[in-house]
Write a structure and sequence with these properties.
Chain A has 454 residues and is of the alpha+beta class. Helix content of chain A is 42%, strand content 18%. Classes of the chains: A alpha+beta (454), B alpha+beta (429).
Chain lengths: 454, 429
Amino acid sequence: MKPLFAALSLLAFAAVPAPGLANPFETQLANGLRVIVKEDRRAPTAVHMVWYRAGSMDEKDGTSGVAHALEHLMFKGTTNLAAGEFNKRVAEAGGRDNAFTSRDYTAYFQIVPKAALPEMMKLEADRMANLRLDAKEFSSEIKVVMEERRLRTDDDPHALVHEALNSAMFQAHPYRRPIIGWMDDLEHLTWQDARDWYRLWYAPNNAYVVVVGDVDHREVFRLAQKYYGPLKARALPQRKPQNEPEQAGMRRLSVKAPAQLPYLAMAWKAPRLRDVQKDRDPYALDVLATVLDGHDASRFARNLVRGSRVAQSAGAGYDGTLRGEASFVLDGQPAEGKTIADLEAALRAEIKLIQDEGVSAEELTRVKTQSIAAQIYKRDSLMAQAMEIGGAEAAGESWRDIDAMLEQLKSVTAEEVQAVARKYFKDDALSIAVLDPQPVDKSKPKKPSVAVRH
Amino acid sequence: MRTLIVLLLSSLVSTLALAGVKIEHWTAPSGAKVYFVETRVLPILDVQIDFAAGAAFVPAGKSGLAGLTHSLLETGAAGLDEEHIAGRLVDIAAHLGGGVDSDRASISLRTLSAQPQRDAALDLMRTILSAPTFPQAALERERGRSIASIREAETRPDAIAGKRFAAAIYPGHPYGVSPTAESVATITREDLVTFHRQHYGAAGAIVSIIGDVSRTAAEAIAQRLTEALPAGGGDLVPPAVTKPLRTTIKIAHPAAQSHVHIGLPAISRSDPDYFPLLVGNYTLGGGGFVSRLMKEVREKRGYAYSVYSYFAPRKLEGPFEIGLQTKREQVGDALKVVDEVLTGYIAKGPGRKELAAAKKNMIDGLALRMDSNAKLLGYLSAIGFYGLPLTYLDEFPAKVQAVTAEQVKAAFARHVKAENLVTVVVAAD
């Protein structure tokens, strides 16, 4: 936590910024709420986001899904506002709003004509402190959440594979639980669980506000003080690290579901970014993922889909900017006539090729070219800019680190990429999940869930 | 996420307040129509070309041809093989995109506006559009991948529901035909060459340009992109649509949720009822959390995560659709609620407050539907392709404001008739 500054003293400092140099701008209210503003005057609109540093990784066994369920309930009214009124006010202002829950955080946003920004801040500040929770609204909304789980997970074979993979690769770390929650936990969740969650984590000193758009940061700081300023800070629970013990041996599992094509996902434990300046491996792993699957000319597209045609699709992913444990994931579907074993061998061969021969100068140049252009293209979207700031902050970095992280990425050498390919892709740290497709007409519908609420 | 689908009623019915955005329009010497907005704030350039080369124009039995022609453009052109093309795009950080729907095929390009990148990107776009080689080997591979995707989709309840719905509301019409493993298997290189020659011509091509270039540069770009296109093309229109008869189709599937589509062919993009239906649908099921369907099906009863309605006007009558997914045991109850909401809305139309709220959202929300080059590009191409007036966007607020509850009611009565409503339920007990 950074030291607390009184908002007014910072405002005085921020009153004479060097134009164009200081953007974005940040202040912190006395109650601990941080406010980050990026001025972008291209269109008369603004994005307003509130991020809470509480996601599914902060849940306990037995109440998985409560972070996400609370996200739904945040639209159900406060002591000052009737249920559904939040959405109505946003709509009437000509805006759109929504929210999302991740393993690391829960975030709420409105995209509005700029004149509506003060009202949005007022609404968000209200539900940061005054949410009204009761059994009635809860019992209806939890059914919606269960429908969401059926839609996104239970009837989606690839989502089932990833849910199973996560719960196998992590045993101690809370990333093993699905964000949406196990169905059985959802069925037994109560409105008091949601209330407890809200009381625990929804406080200004556990949140930050991101505003991007056609705004004056000094005015936004004033509004933040007006609406969020009166909220009280609260002692937050201690967060335990819950580090995953070192994996000692490969884990394999399979999931049966109605489908045609098999699907394979392989996940190796990998380091996350801890020190923006000193770390090197996370950047090298990021470059490795791009070399394998960052664009149409990357190795998987060229060698596996177009070249050997072993894959119908093939992907590589690594995200080191997070609060919890990181992993490097390869996945794909075998092409017609090929097997999961063929695909697994081909994916492993691509890693081995880099372990043995490294990557070319041309490939590294391409990663740099792509990342520079991506920063320029991102400026065409207010939401993308707000997400970039909020995402870095959620992982424990600062928006001030974003440029440094890009510079680090661009400085990665071929030797470093080869070194991380050798270091982290060991079978002992690998978990593999496979979709075993079942014929649709021979599959039985899943049993209706135990009806605990009707 | 609280809601699955961003309920914009397809880009065609979205909005663009043009106060301050100036669309320039001309016809290139090639015959292509050009729509241009100059904006120099960001060093980027977006270009899109639209052709009347959608799925509705492929010969009988060749469903899948429009999509394959489009996706194979990048697999070889004038001496460049697909690895060259992919590599060059990456080297200059340009993105080629686009897609195919029933009416049109679109190819879009985003590039940095600096001269070397821009020139290289536009050259590549010109080459793949004008001189694609459709290599046999790439065709065989992509045909195989396409067939595998189709077979996979045939196991997914959402995909099954979408295909069956289209087939049921457009009986005997190309709008209702989806690619099958069999139809894709018959597609030959000759089919691709012919379809490209007949449908990717400059006549009827719409070139949309937005970004960091001058009008003079834009004129040169549009001409260069289209001067070498084949001679075919033109303002094509699919055969006339006939309305289906009311029916309910149930399809077995083991999914935990039933997937429901209810609807019919409604209006073309040029229909005078466009604005009453656009405004009216906001209250019914287009306005996200504040719509009647959302309130009744989701908020009050917890029957569904996602429930919506939309009109998607096309060259001819595009679909009106209500969609939702719900636990299979309660689909009958959910259908009853939807039926009550729809029937009540058709009978009485929106209330005074509802109508005012709909208009306020659509008019005040104009700004955020056009706050990026990417969004504006979509509007330029829709204006061009559907022949909307250049003043369409300036007039948008007034047209929305002028809609009355009576007009909404009359338009729904004309276009959403109970006798033509088709219901498709996948994973029904």
